[in-house]
Amino acid sequence: MRTPVRILVTAGLLAGALAATAAPAQAAGGVVLDRGHVDVVGIAYEGGRLHLHVHDETVEPGEERDPEDVTFRVPPAAGTTVPADPSFGFLGDAGDPVWILPQVRNPDLLWPGLGTEELDEGVLRDDTVTVTFAVLGPGDLAIYTENAFGLPGDILVDTGDGQPDTFALPAGGHTHANWAFEKPGTYRILVVAYGTLASTGRVVADAALYHFQVLA
Fold this sequence. Notes:
The chain has 216 residues and is mainly beta. The protein is built from one helix and 16 strands.
């Protein structure tokens, strides 16, 4: 079982925790998800703490899973190249290969979401939960939205820019974004979610380890 995180963790501590506690990639869980809608990062408030989980809607009815029991598979069909438009430069040089799980649904790929529907309004201060990513893998990971013109909007995660990969999500919300992997291989992603209880000012948090397998 995962141990709840009770303190606010800095980016440096995240990286150290990932290296120290992450299980070998081949030890990832036996449930493989490779297409359909799934909230990769689902966040709830249960039993006086935050709870990270996977909300799997690839099955009917949907099922809640422990992240460490799941391997998310990115097939070769997700492969494309970095566009020439310089606004996509955070993905690499124009023409470089990149594997993307898209913001817009593609029936042949995973449609990854970030879900906070289970966080009721008024529980957390400012109705906001903060999420931090630390990634260990063969390449960089970027999570970003696109606007109506197909250009990058919000860049939530960019492990190649040397900055903390931390962003806020509103309670009761649901977000879809592009998940772009720089190289094929296995990625281990340590996710920490934390917020402050509106009623007491106490920080509540949870951490979970996710596994993605990117196939060339």
